[in-house]
Specification:
This protein is of the alpha/beta class. Helices cover about 50% and strands about 15% of the residues.
Length: about 180
């Protein structure tokens, strides 16, 4: 059975364009992924609603908590964005990024479906690469399991068909 390649899409959503650029630059082997950055959750959600989610695609979101703009509009916060993402597609893996004063949101973020909750510290660049590799490995394992289960079902159906054909021919030969 031919395996469908896994396509990884990585989204970095944070109000600070310089920070999103540094995270994007820190991702190892970026040519393997489709990497997009957004400075508001509203823009990201608008993009997400245009996508068609296929079973073998991987969508990883690195999401900040606080969002600001010059117009002082009331923007969605990270938890609201996380909840909206999970409504659109539950298979999108959201990694919440938090600053010093935002660590108290961790339990709520995990209960809302966040894959991980990572501090914005010096180790974040290493951690995001480890998280990307872990998610991709898990998705590949899930794909292998689905392929195995499908193959097992096909084999079982084939064996059942052979047994039925054998029994039919045996019965026909007895009545001749």
């Amino acid at each position: 059975m031919k395996k469908t390649p896994i396509k990884a899409n990585i989204y970095i959503v944070d109000y600070d364009p310089a920070y999103t650029a540094s995270l994007k630059k820190a991702i190892e082997k970026p040519n393997r992924y489709n990497i997009l950055t957004f400075t508001t959750g509203e823009k990201f959600i608008a993009h997400l609603t245009t996508l068609k989610f296929r079973v073998n695609d991987i969508h990883i979101v690195f999401l900040g908590y606080h969002f600001y703009d010059e117009g002082d509009r009331n923007l969605m916060n990270g938890i609201e964005i996380l909840e909206a993402v999970k409504v659109i597609c539950t298979n999108v893996e959201v990694v919440m990024l938090y600053g010093e004063d935002e660590s108290s949101y961790g339990a709520y973020a995990r209960n809302s479906g966040a894959y991980d909750f990572v501090p914005k510290t010096d180790t974040i660049f290493l951690r995001i690469n480890n998280i990307i590799m872990r998610i991709i490995s898990q998705k590949k394992l899930q794909q292998s399991r689905r392929s195995f289960i499908l193959s097992a079902k096909i084999l079982a159906a084939y064996i059942a068909l052979v047994i039925i054909v054998f029994l039919v021919f045996t019965l026909i030969s007895k009545f001749r």
